[in-house]
Amino acid sequence: MNHLYLSTLAIAFVSSVIPFVAQAADVKNIVIVRGALADGSSWRKATEILERRGFHVTIVQEPITSLADDIAATKRVLDLQDGPALLVGHSYGGMVITEAGHNPNVAGLVYVAAFQPDKGESLLSLASSKPAGGMNIRETTDGKYLYLDPAAFANDFAADLPKDEAAFLARSQVFASKEAFSAKAGDPAWKTKKSWSVVATEDRAINPDLERQMAERAGSEATEIKASHAVFASQPEKVADVIEKAANEAGN
Q: Where, by residue number, does the polypeptide cross the bilayer (predicted)?
């Protein structure tokens, strides 16, 4: 067996192993796409927990001007990651990660009390298919954006948070365009990538049964947590546990 043959054989072996190694790389980047109404800073507790566990966390502050704009904003953050990333979406953020998840940097998807659409579905069509406890949603004077009545915010969105925290969320909420809520989803990334779901059992913004149904349809591994729609803020440790587990499994 000559040296040239051995060299060729070695190169072929290394070339075949490299893609496998890259595919099985540890997932240490967590990209969180916040939902409508709650500002990204509301993820601070969960972020700090994940960072203590060795993860690098980035939160997308998408404009919620249109679904396309928000997908583009998420892709810009994904492109900045050094290595594979786990994409996490809360509420409306689930609409965003369903399409942004096609980015080659994305190793898996985590839906946290989130909409998990199939192709052609919108946030409004999903929400109306199985109404929740009721949200006192109002329109801005120009009729283009929606927001949650601050007086009803704690009860409808964050009933299990301390009053001062819920009040801050209400004052810092991000208005959502009607266009974003009515936009139809494209081909979902959950059909080709691993996914996980957190079902908030006391959610008044998204019917918990709808969260269960969407997770089952997508084949997502679901974890139920007794919490409001603001589960990521009221139960940050439990949500971080799900994200950490997903990151570990996505890398295998």
A: none
Angle between the N-to-C axes of helices 150-157 and 163-171, in degrees from 0 to 180, rounded to the nearest 10: 120
Domain spans of the chain? Answer: 27-131+180-250
CA–CA separation, 206 vs 220, rounded Å?
A: 17
Along the 252 residues of the chain, how does pLDDT read in single tens digits? 454 444 444 444 444 443 433 344 689 999 999 999 999 999 999 999 999 999 999 999 999 999 999 999 999 999 999 999 999 999 999 999 999 999 999 999 999 999 999 999 999 999 999 988 777 899 999 999 999 999 999 999 999 999 999 999 999 999 999 999 999 999 999 999 999 999 999 999 999 999 999 999 999 999 999 999 999 999 999 999 999 999 999 977
Q: How many helices (H) and strands (E) does the chain have?
A: 11, 9
Cα–Cα distance, 4 to 1 (Å, whole number) = 9
| CA 169 – CA 231 distance, rounded (Å) | 13
The gap from C-alpha 124 to its chain's centroid, in whole angstroms, comes to 18
Tokens of 206: 């998204």
d(CA 208, CA 192): 25
3-class state of residue 68 by DSSP: helix
With beta carbons less than 8 A apart as the criterion, state whether 89 and 110 touch: yes
DSSP annotation string for 219-249? T-EEEEE---TTHHHHSHHHHHHHHHHHHHH
Give the CATH H-level superfamily of domain 27-131+180-250: Alpha/Beta hydrolase fold, catalytic domain (3.40.50.1820)
